[in-house]
Each structure stands twice: as C-alpha cells, then as structure tokens.
Amino acid sequence: MADAVAATTTSGYDPRWDRFWTVPPLLILSVLFFYPLGLIIRQSLGDPGTVSLAAFAEVLSSREFHEGLQHTVVIALGSTAGCLVFGFVFSLVIAFVPFPGAKFCGRLIDTFIALPTFLVTLAFTFIYGSAGLLNESLMRLMHIDLPPIDFLYSQWGVILAETTVYTPFVMRPLLATFSQIDQAQIEVASSLGAKPWRIVRQIILPAAMPALIAGGSLCLLLTVNEFGIVLFIGAKGVITLPVLIYAKAIQEFDYTTACVIAVVNVALSLGLYSLYRAVIAHFGSKRAGLV
Q1: Of 108, 95, 105, 97, which Cα lies nearest the Cα of 211?
Q2: Which structural domain, as residue segments, surrounds residue 89?
Q3: pLDDT higher for 75 or 196?
C-alpha cells in the first residue's frame, strides 16, 4: 500500500484506476451482446416465471431440426474441405511458381476478403443460374428448352459458393507461412534430385500444416454461421440452422423454437471458436501465419 501511494505521489499515476478502464467495454458488451443473448436464452426456457426444457426436448427431437443440423454440418465440412484444397493449391502456385502478377494476386486476396458474400452469389447466378450465361449458351447450342445445368440451386451450389467466398481466409495465412520458408531448403532438395511433389510433401506441407489447421478452423466457424449465401441462392430443400432460425422467427412467428435453435447455434459456434483459439494457442500466431 505504501509503495502504491509512493508511486502515485512521485509519478501522478495510480495503478488502482486500471480496473475502471474495463467498465466501459463491459457496459457495451452487456447492452449489445449479453442482454440480447440473455433474452434469447430466457425465451427458450419457456414463459416468464417458469423454467422448462420442454421446448428444447421438442425442438431437438424434431425432424426439421435434424435436417437443418445435417445440412449445416455437411455444407460446413464440404466448404471447409474445398477451401483447404483450393487454398493450398492456389497459395502454392502464387508463392512458388514464378509468373507475372504473382505479387498482385497475393495482394488481391486481402481485397477479396473485404467484399460482401452476396456479390459472389450474384455472380454465380448470372453465370450458372437457370437463365445464366452458361445455360443460355448451352440451350442455344443444343437446341433444348430446359437448362442443362441445375446444380446451383442445390446443396452443391451452396458448397461451391461458400468455397469461393472463404478460400481467401485459408490463402492469407498460407501465403504468410510460405514467405517464411527458407528457399535454400527447396533449392538443396531440388539439386539432390527431389521431385516437386516430394518437396511439397516433405518440406512445404509440414511447414504449412499450422496455417492450414488455423485457416480451416476459421472457415468451419464462418460456414456454420453462413446465412446470406444459402438464402440468396434459394437452394431447394437446403435449410441450415441460421436459415431455420430466420424462418421460425420472421415467417412463422414461432419465437420460442427460433430461440431454442439460436441457443444451439450459439453453443456450436462457441465450441468451434474455442477450437480455433486452441489451435492458435498450440501452434502460435506466427506459425499459423496470422502475424
């Protein structure tokens, strides 16, 4: 205590005031996050004055919820796998295959991340939609009345759109990791007769694994909560948990069911976020390509 008073007297700074700087952020979080989340949880537990898990039992046992959860998991896993494959291949080409504009392509990744997701979905509709450029051209060429390509309005169309949108989230940490690889290792391995695939498998891939896991975890988190792409495409019969929450709350006014599904979705998101943070803590931000 005497030391604190002496420090305050000599420098005019009181360390005890540091704790008060946490009050404004906590107030903002309470108003914008904790209070709405509390209302959702309270609504999911039944009428005011009672606490019941009956709504959870009813919703979690329903076929509609099971299908929504299945679609969410399948789309998230499929999109994440696509992001990992395409992200690794594209990053490999940009980082290690010399061609004009390689640096520009690397910088373009950051710009692509900032674009809204509906732009990609809109572009897919113009190209692959029933009245899109590809179908119109094929219908004229083949002299048919119905569009021959109809994958866009299915689960595969959603996966392709989400893969296109979120692949840069894998490429960004990968490119940062590839820039840290010692080129001398690759040159020595090549001079000793190692084939390109062996160099990738034994030198590049082990170094890229932390960035791949970190980027994949982030993509999994983002695709689980993706709403705009699924809604914009309007895939037939493809209802994910975010879309199901929207349908129950906005279209059917069934707020209790919507809140129950929202609580499950939040719990799933927090679990995936914990996984993402655990990956970063295990490998470190630098090895994961995030700094």
Answers
A1: 95
A2: 55-283
A3: 75
